[in-house]
Design goal:
Blueprint lengths: L6 H10 L4 E6 L4 H13 L3 E6 L6 H28 L1
Parallel strand pairs: 1-2
Amino acid sequence: MQDYPSINQLRRNVANKKLNLIFAIPENSRKEANAAYVQLVGQIEGSSHGTLSSNCSNIVDIIKDNYQVTSHSLLRCVVYKCVRDVH
């Protein structure tokens, strides 16, 4: 039994289930912890990060920002596929 999933388990589940994984990093976290999450984002496709305020009041903004980036990426993929299929 393990407490936390491995990076490979996260990567596999995010890809298989087409998830968007958001790491909300507390603004008062140590630089090392922040750097670790940023590194994870680089290793897990479909993941992103945001800085969470001390009272967590910006969690909705972090989710909205991620959604906007994701929806724009999805729109670009759909448009590219449509254009490619037409030609």
